[in-house]
Amino acid sequence: QIAAGSGVLEKIGKMAMELGMTRPVVISDRNTYAAAGDKVCKILENAGISYQSCCLDTDCPVPDEYWVGSVALNFNRRWDGIIAVGSGTINDICKIIADMTKLPYILAGTAPSMDGYVSGTSSMVRGGLKVSVPSKCPDGLLLDSSVLANAPMKMLRAGLGDMAAKYVSICEWRISNLINGEYYCEEIAGLIRKSLKTCMDSGRKLAERDQEAAADVAKGLVMAGMSMSYAGVSRPASGMEHYFSHIWEMTALARHESHELHGIQVGVGTLLSLAVYEEIRDIKPDREKALAYVENFDMEQWKESVRSAFGEAGESIISLEEKEQQSHSLRLERIISKWDEIQEIIRQELPDREWLTQQLLMIGAPVTPQEIGISQEMVKKSFMATKDIRDKYI
User: Fold this and answer.
1) Which residue has the higher pLDDT, 80 or 389?
2) How far is the C-alpha of 203 from the C-alpha of 360, rounded, in Å?
3) 147 has a pLDDT exceeding 70
4) Are strands 82-86 and 121-126 parallel, antiparallel or unpaired?
5) By three-state DSSP, how is residue 107 classified?
6) Which of 55, 67, 212, 313 is most deeply buried (CB count within 10 A of its CB)?
7) Cα dihedral across residues 71, 72, 73, 75: positive or negative
């Protein structure tokens, strides 16, 4: 069940009862409790539902072993349902707990900030590496536009940044289908394109905290998450631009430093990816040059550079690349033979970089790595590793 619009939070009591909840736990953090958690508890109380509130003692939990473990260790077997109040991290944590306990799960979204509302995975940090963990999609989702529009402006910017990524993700999905024969669904891609247009058209009003615009962006993000579930892979919603963000986040965590919101980093990563594709459009494939590069490639030197740049997370990057070595020569021939088709996909799917820059600036979002504390040297290292941190062709 999905309900979106002004005042839909009032439906949470009815939705909980329809899912058989009589003693649910309401999970939030300090910020999301203030945004909507207190109201959710009062609505449940008025509906005669005996709930228990579990507010994590932090303003900004990290989606990692600590906070999943914290919720798990405080879990009460009497609870017969889970109600999460939040968006990105709170949802990711609760989806895992719901999957482990097999309890019905409702999410009351508090910000249109990311596309994982109804995906079947949780984006987590495990052992210092950003990974997607199978989890439970919510049984019910409430997106109250009056709550969403009042989210911190940074989170509204993050939502638009996460949607902007879909230009690159659809492009790369089609290219991988062409080169590797990977599954691709035009119907799913069409849903993403339609949602993307609606979100971008709403950008100016989103900057003014317009409720309808906030709901439009939230719906677009929900559709992106649903598309990943339909496809069974993350292809419809993430590509190279997400890997810039994942690397920056992993590196920050390894150094015990702060990092920007995922969607804001993804927006910057999208602009970097568009710049890469501008370069690709000027390339003429050269088989001899490519083969000579492979022959002269120093794997040990590369491993040391990865370890130096990414610390503990570097070992996971190295492990994935070692599995990929045998695929490179086969792909080279396909790339050369299908170069014109690759170029046509790029022309069809990717927007003008300056236009997208202006769309993000319209809402006050950062558009350069330097604005979010990423050096040019780190951008270069990150770009070199984007192809290696997942077993997915980009």
Assistant:
1) 80
2) 8
3) yes
4) unpaired
5) strand
6) 313
7) positive
Directed axis angle between helix 211-231 and helix 153-164, to 10°?
40
The pTM of this model reads: 0.87
What digits encode the pLDDT tens for the residues 63-85? 899 999 999 999 999 999 999 99
Nearest C-alpha neighbor of 258 from the set 86, 105, 59: 59
State the Cα–Cα distance between residues 185 and 167, nearest whole angstrom. Answer: 15
**Helix, coil or strand: residue 50:** coil
Q: Which two tokens stand for residue 47?
A: 């509906």
Rounded to 10°, the helix 328-337/339-349 angle is 80
Average pLDDT over residues 31-40: 96
Give the tokens for residue 62.
């990290």
Token pair 């999970």 is at which residue? 27
Q: How far apart are CA 5 and CA 211, in angstroms?
A: 8
pLDDT single digits (tens) 267-313: 999 999 999 999 999 999 999 999 898 888 888 888 888 887 777 76
**pLDDT computed for residue 10 by the predictor:** 96
Euclidean distance between the first and the last CA atom of the chain, given in angstroms as a whole number: 34
d(CA 82, CA 147): 20
* Structure-model confidence comparison of residues 310 and 259, the more confident one: 259
The Cα–Cα gap between 86 and 104 comes to 17
Q: Which one-letter amino acid corresponds to residue 51? A: Y
**DSSP letter string over 283-348?**
----HHHHHHHHHH--HHHHHHHHHHHHTTHHHHHHHHHHHHGGGHHHHHHHHHHTHHHHHHHHHH
Describe the strand order of the beta sheet including 25-29 as a list of residue ranges. 2-5, 140-144, 105-109, 82-86, 25-29, 52-56
Query: In which element (H, E) is residue 241 found?
Result: helix 240-254
pLDDT of the residue at 109: 96
Query: Which residue, among 47, 51, 50, 48, has the nearest Cα to 37 in the 3D structure?
Result: 51
The SS3 call for residue 141 is strand
pLDDT of residue 323: 62
DSSP code at position 137: P
Buried b (16+ CB within 10 A) or exposed e, 174-204: bbbbbbeeeebbeebbebbeebbebbbebbe
